[in-house]
């Protein structure tokens, strides 16, 4: 028997599930968060929940938001249970459940984003945060602002009826400026190096297209703190829905997560902030070193193992770590070709971090699918792997394993596994990637000639020649043969 999750039933939930100690009726909003996925609820909301359990940050409750039509479905599911979420921690020593409640509303998802704009323009909102994926910031291949994207052109032409989250932020800031209400902090929680500066580039760049004076005001008045976020949070599927029922809770949108979190943030908040550092977050002036370590070793490490896992039909990341050749690839590439381009941070060396993430990836309780981790490779390889390739080439350092990683991505994007089964489209640019991958079967360099992802790396002979060799071997002898040859070197 399960109890439907809601404010009214919190007192009736089974003893095994922890519930909020604060009175949710007393919460008032301070944050609008756009992109209310699993990671946000297991990470930012969890930190806020811990503060609220201490009787703090009660005026920093979250209003959820989304700009995609599909977000309307998520909104209704969340509102049906009063914004509550069950977090299930998956520790090898045992599972535990906790119901959290920092989110008190979810703005209607409408064309033109009028409701979202109105919520962000309200004076009590002091932070607008986002998780919109690494590829959602309208960047060109060289990292600059993509002013020619159709959605950006639309928002510049009709700023009062924007399509994008950034257009909605610009319009809300325009209204606040006109009303004399002051700016809000713009905070990204996505896995991008210098993510705050990238968000600034997008918001200010968009504003310049329609109102240069407003753009200057945003640039000078708003703050865009860089941050590093970390917690492995699988997607929710039938197994997760079944698991929450085992705790006696009927939750339509439960979230599972590992027993590790990290949040490193620049302390630049123009309109105040919750005291996240009181519950484990780190405020620092040097986020870059932390984010470089995490993005290159953890996020990059995910891409190292996910593509061969997909090709070989390994369903989970823990399964990839159990596969001796994929595990050997992970360790060799991480230690020999990525770690030399990562600086240590206080209390953590790159070598120690590799050991830590190896343990986390291998957690058998975390059913993090290979498909989820391999999703959106066009953003993840360009953000996590290719900057290391460029640093290695400049330093005349090894790139053989990195070239193999890229060849495995090319092989995966052809769309079939080695057992002949189909790999369903798994990237916003899948059609383009698949065309290049099919051509690369007979002419490997065709893959690297995708300049939107690789820039001029096709002309870097040391990397490109190694890539050609590995892709030829993968197609002629198989993925395991290539892994064996590389890891035996």
TrEMBL record:
A single GO molecular function term of this UniProt record: mannitol 2-dehydrogenase activity
Broad class of enzyme this protein falls into: oxidoreductase
Zinc in keyword set: no
One family name in Pfam for this protein: Mannitol_dh_C
Domain Mannitol dehydrogenase C-terminal: 286-474
InterPro entries reported in the protein's UniProt record: 6-PGluconate_DH-like_C_sf (IPR008927), 6PGD_dom2 (IPR013328), Mannitol_DH (IPR000669), Mannitol_DH/Oxidoreductase (IPR050988), Mannitol_DH_C (IPR013118), Mannitol_DH_N (IPR013131), NAD(P)-bd_dom_sf (IPR036291)
E.C. number: 1.1.1.67
Key words, A-Z: Oxidoreductase
Domain Mannitol dehydrogenase N-terminal: 30-276
Stated name of the protein: Mannitol 2-dehydrogenase
